């Protein structure tokens, strides 16, 4: 016998592990034990197999690897005795799960045990099957389980019923085999069998419509009777829980009735009486009773209309809601969310109580209540409810503020009766919890502000007030700084004062002060600082008297270590200093932003591509400068930790003719503006086919960033002739006047684009580019266009290539493809051709999508790649 | 359906872990750690329900032990609460006045009892008496 394995008993091992004072000691003990067990395994020691498996289970529970014991489980299961089998099955369920290949080996043992004469062994096998069986095992062993549903011993029948649930969940096709035997289980008297039988029937109904039909026809009355008998049954000590006979069976039956009654008037009618009885007669002072009432309410809410019962149910929920027990209030809130679709008036009556729950100290309750309040809000109650929520925002716990803020913002956006209210509420939220507000929310606020021209003065004055008191809220400061930059003159001149406003006297230098404080605040991030610089530039135009001071502030950032800020500072200060004559045009107010476009973008749909018509005249200055610093900026942009709002804002400021391909605004906005760029933060760039080359925005159409990099890596070759050295930014800005912008597209179109695939419903085009110095690798920009009038969802493109090619797919820009070519999806593919020059590219592709919820699959082979790839 | 059952002490040591859905070992440890953190510091007056990823955990504390069930979001929370209590009563009956050490040294027995109580993530038997008797019969077979 092995010298180790004679060692410790299970108890002793546990004791010595518990005695360990450090993790290292524990590891040492475990290592020793594992070594002993391994040795015993390799000697095929049968005397201690039982003990070793038990030890392994304990070791497994502590989190140590035990895979070497898996085969021991199988051996133990295969041995004839009950104790060995028992420990073997137990260890099997603990150490393995359905994904392990080893499990397949046990199928045969289980099959034999299911047919064993000893019913206890049958029970073991069923238990293991129910807990870990895989789809293959389910298929193999379903007939045995089906047979065991009629076994003489009820203990086996109930286990078989639960096994059957697992089997049909794994292999839904097998459901029909179990319909009849499941129905006969409902005629049993044994509670365990009934409980599991009802559960099996419920699950069968969810899987198979045939089963649902069958049970509805044959078992509705029987189930109603079962529930009635149970509800009226005399005291039965065995199943009694706080005065109620088997609440678990009650609940299973109510759930089954719910499935039967849903969508069927006759079935619903036949259960009305018993539901009314359960709803009125069940004791509600103990948890068990409440659990039944809760399930009963759920059933009443789901079955076909019976207004009397619903009143009863809503009343129960009302009682629950005022219960002192938090658990009961929680389930009430949960159920009221369902009730709201049935009878929203009744739920509205509990509004005040629900609102109180939003302020509960328990996060679970708060979360439920907030969801519910969100559903309760409509046009008529939005004002008082929003006020309550915003008031609560002030005192709420920090970890809840994120959720709360998001919900308030969403409510305000959805239901605002007018713009002034919207702006007021948003300013309140921003000043209370500005740090929790998501980017798209404050972007939306800016869009609304620009559209409310009569409120510009009012807004900027309100912002001026709140930024002074709540300057630590990042997003508030951003919105404030943006508005002060845009509407600073209105702030000082008191333009458009509304009668509700208190008079406010602001001097020009007060306005500059605000921005200066914001930019100097140590916690201000890059985006905020960059926005402050832009605001300062704008203010220098609005307040010529302050321009010297502004220039001083801007100058402080000339030495900023953040390139983005440094560049802005240098360029802006040149503008302020040396170009007073063009400054006023540069800093003109932003054009109004198109709300529809923006909300469309937020909703995820991509509006039509930018058309060429809105491109500003091409004869504006500094085309040459643009070419060189654009790649630089973009390159920097890639490295900037946060997306910066406007890499190219200085170009905009000096009116460069760049069409804002990254952000398609409404057609009437001729030139790019800062805000549209701001608004693109965090949203994937819209794919479009603008004919104007825009190397300023990264990841755009055909010219993807690769081209930009491309240029950067070999600027001398491509653009040197046109561009003066970039030593002085001023030179960059102003030199090259009259130079028309070079067309960087030249760099990207060495290979012609192809239509890779075209069917009646879909067109796929490929644009090619190469990285310099790496001729083997081709970058393909695939564009998908929908030719039908239905939009596609769940769009997925798959490609396969032969072995000499390596394919890498980047994520697609979207998985929704709007109809009629109103936008496209783009996806980048990188192909490395190991036989470059010998073999050309070839690819098989498959495209799957859903049209009107129907799945469509298109396949094709692409072999007409341009030569030389 | 019950996704998994955990029995942990206040320090976060797992005394029993039964999974009815397949999970990687590393994922199991993560789940155990997260569930423990979720439940251990909750005020006793709070609800016994916490949302956990896309499911919810119904837990109940007995002395220093936390019994946690992870169930579907649509399941009846109150019923599972009752279910935990019934399981504890069965353990209490079986070990006559159960304590944590009983569960440590007889961990395999606890699993066997659980297998008579819950199977495939569903309740199998609701009678305390029936389960205790069945355990007796099984012990006799050994």
Automatic annotation (TrEMBL), chain A:
It is found in: Cytoplasmic vesicle, Clathrin-coated vesicle membrane; Golgi apparatus. One of its GO terms (biological process) is intracellular protein transport. GO terms for cellular component: AP-1 adaptor complex. The keyword Cell division does not apply. It comes from the Eukaryota. Keywords: Cytoplasmic vesicle, Golgi apparatus, Membrane, Protein transport, Transport. SMART domains: Alpha_adaptinC2 (SM00809). The keyword Phosphoprotein does not apply. Residues 749-866 form the GAE domain. It is a peripheral membrane protein. Its main location: membrane. Pfam families: Adaptin_N, Alpha_adaptinC2. Belongs to the adaptor complexes large subunit family. This is AP-1 complex subunit gamma.
From TrEMBL, chain B:
It is a peripheral membrane protein. GO terms for biological process: endocytosis; intracellular protein transport. It comes from the Eukaryota. Transmembrane segments: none annotated. Residues 1-141 form the AP complex mu/sigma subunit domain. One of its GO terms (cellular component) is cytoplasmic vesicle. The keyword DNA-binding does not apply. InterPro entries: AP_complex_ssu, AP_mu_sigma_su, APS2, Longin-like_dom_sf. Its main location: membrane. It is found in: Cell membrane; Membrane, Coated pit. Keywords: Cell membrane, Coated pit, Endocytosis, Membrane, Protein transport, Transport. Gene3D superfamilies: 3.30.450.60. Belongs to the adaptor complexes small subunit family. This is AP complex subunit sigma. It comes from Ilex paraguariensis.
């Amino acid at each position: 016998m092995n010298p180790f394995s004679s060692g410790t008993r299970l108890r002793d091992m546990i004791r010595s592990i518990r005695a360990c004072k450090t993790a290292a000691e524990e590891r040492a003990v475990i290592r020793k034990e594992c070594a002993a067990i391994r040795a015993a395994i390799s000697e095929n020691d049968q005397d201690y197999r039982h003990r070793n498996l038990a030890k392994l289970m304990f070791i497994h529970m502590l989190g140590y690897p035990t895979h070497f014991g898996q085969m021991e489980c199988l051996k133990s299961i295969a041995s004839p005795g009950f104790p060995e089998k028992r420990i073997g099955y137990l260890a099997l369920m603990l150490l393995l799960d359905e994904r392990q290949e080893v499990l397949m080996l046990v199928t045969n043992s289980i099959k034999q045990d299911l047919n064993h004469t000893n019913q206890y062994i049958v029970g073991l096998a069923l238990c293991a099957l129910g807990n870990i069986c895989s789809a293959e095992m389910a298929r193999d062993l379903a007939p045995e389980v089906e047979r065991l549903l009629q076994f003489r011993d009820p203990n086996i029948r109930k286990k078989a019923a639960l096994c059957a649930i697992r089997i049909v969940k794994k292999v839904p096709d097998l459901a029909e085999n179990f319909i009849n035997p499941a129905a006969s289980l409902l005629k049993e008297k044994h509670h365990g069998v009934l409980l599991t039988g009802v559960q099996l029937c419920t699950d069968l109904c969810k899987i198979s419509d045939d089963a649902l039909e069958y049970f509805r026809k044959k078992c509705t009355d029987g189930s109603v009777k079962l529930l009635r008998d149970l509800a009226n049954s005399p005291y039965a000590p065995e199943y009694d829980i706080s005065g109620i006979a088997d609440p678990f069976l009650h609940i299973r039956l109510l759930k089954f009735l719910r499935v039967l009654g849903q969508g069927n008037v006759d079935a619903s009618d036949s259960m009305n009486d018993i539901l009314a009885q359960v709803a009125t007669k069940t004791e509600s002072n103990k948890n068990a009773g409440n659990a039944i009432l809760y399930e009963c309410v759920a059933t009443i809410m789901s079955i076909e209309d019976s207004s009397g019962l619903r009143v009863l149910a809503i009343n129960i929920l009302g009682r629950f809601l005022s219960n002192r027990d938090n658990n009961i209030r929680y389930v009430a809130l949960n159920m009221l969310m369902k009730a709201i679709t049935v009878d929203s008036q009744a739920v509205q009556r509990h509004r005040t109580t629900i609102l109180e729950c939003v302020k509960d100290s328990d996060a679970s309750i708060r979360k439920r209540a907030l969801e519910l309040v969100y559903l309760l809000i409509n046009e008529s109650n939005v004002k008082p409810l929003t006020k309550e929520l915003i008031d609560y925002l002030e005192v709420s716990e920090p970890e809840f503020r994120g959720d709360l803020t998001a919900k308030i913002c969403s409510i305000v956006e959805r239901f605002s009766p007018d713009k002034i209210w919207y702006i007021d509420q948003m300013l309140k939220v921003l000043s209370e919890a500005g740090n929790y507000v998501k980017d798209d929310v404050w972007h939306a606020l800016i869009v609304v502000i620009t559209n409310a021209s009569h409120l510009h003065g009012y807004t900027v004055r309100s912002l001026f007030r709140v930024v002074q008191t709540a300057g630590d809220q990042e997003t508030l400061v951003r919105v404030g700084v943006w508005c002060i930059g845009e509407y600073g003159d209105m702030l000082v001149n008191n333009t458009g004062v509304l009668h509700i406003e208190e008079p406010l006297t602001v001097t020009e230098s007060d306005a500059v002060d605000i921005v200066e404080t914001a930019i100097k605040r140590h916690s201000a991030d890059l985006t905020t600082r960059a926005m402050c610089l832009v605001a300062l530039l704008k203010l220098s135009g609005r307040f010529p008297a302050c321009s010297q001071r502004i220039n001083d502030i801007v100058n402080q950032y000339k030495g900023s270590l953040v390139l983005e800020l440094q560049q802005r500072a240098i360029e802006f200060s040149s503008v302020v200093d040396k170009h007073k004559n063009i400054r006023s045009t540069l800093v003109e107010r932003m054009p109004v932003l198109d709300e529809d476009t923006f909300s469309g973008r937020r909703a995820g749909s991509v509006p039509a591509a930018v058309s060429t018509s809105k491109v500003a005249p091409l004869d504006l200055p500094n085309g040459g400068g643009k070419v060189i610093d654009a790649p630089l900026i973009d390159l920097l942009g890639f490295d900037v930790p946060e997306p910066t709002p406007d890499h190219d804002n200085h170009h905009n400021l000096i009116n460069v003719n760049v069409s804002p391909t990254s952000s398609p605004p409404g057609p009437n906005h001729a030139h790019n503006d800062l805000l549209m760029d701001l608004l693109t933060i965090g949203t994937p760039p819209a794919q479009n086919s603008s004919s104007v080359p825009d190397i300023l925005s990264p990841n755009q159409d055909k010219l993807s960033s690769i081209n930009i990099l491309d240029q950067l890596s070999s600027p001398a070759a491509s653009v040197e002739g046109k561009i003066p050295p970039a030593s002085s930014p001023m030179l960059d800005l102003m030199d090259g006047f009259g130079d028309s912008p070079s067309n960087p597209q030249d760099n990207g179109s060495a290979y012609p684009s192809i239509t890779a695939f075209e069917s009646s419903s879909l067109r796929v085009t490929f644009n090619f580019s190469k990285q310099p110095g790496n001729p083997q690798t081709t970058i393909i920009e695939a564009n998908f266009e929908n030719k039908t009038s239905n939009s596609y969802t769940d769009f997925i493109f798959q490609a396969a290539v032969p072995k000499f090619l390596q394919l890498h797919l980047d994520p697609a820009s979207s998985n929704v493809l709007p109809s009629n070519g109103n936008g496209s999806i783009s996806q980048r593919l990188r192909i490395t051709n190991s036989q470059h020059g010998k073999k050309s590219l070839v690819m098989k592709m498959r495209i799957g999508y859903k049209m009107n919820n129907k799945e469509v699959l298109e396949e094709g082979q692409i072999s007409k790649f341009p030569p030389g790839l | 359906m019950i996704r998994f059952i955990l029995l942990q002490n206040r320090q976060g040591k797992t005394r029993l872990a039964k999974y009815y859905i397949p999970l990687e070992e590393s994922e199991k440890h993560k789940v155990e750690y997260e569930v423990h953190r979720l439940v251990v510091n909750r005020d006793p007056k709070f609800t016994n329900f916490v949302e956990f990823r896309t499911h919810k955990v119904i837990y109940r504390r007995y002395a220093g032990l936390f019994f946690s069930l992870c169930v579907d979001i649509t399941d009846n929370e109150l019923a599972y609460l009752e279910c935990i209590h019934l399981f504890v009563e069965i353990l209490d009956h079986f070990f006559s006045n159960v304590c944590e050490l009983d569960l440590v040294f007889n961990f395999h027995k606890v699993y066997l009892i659980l297998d008579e109580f819950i199977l495939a993530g569903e309740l199998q038997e609701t009678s305390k008496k029936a389960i205790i008797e069945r355990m007796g019969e099984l012990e006799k077979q050994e």
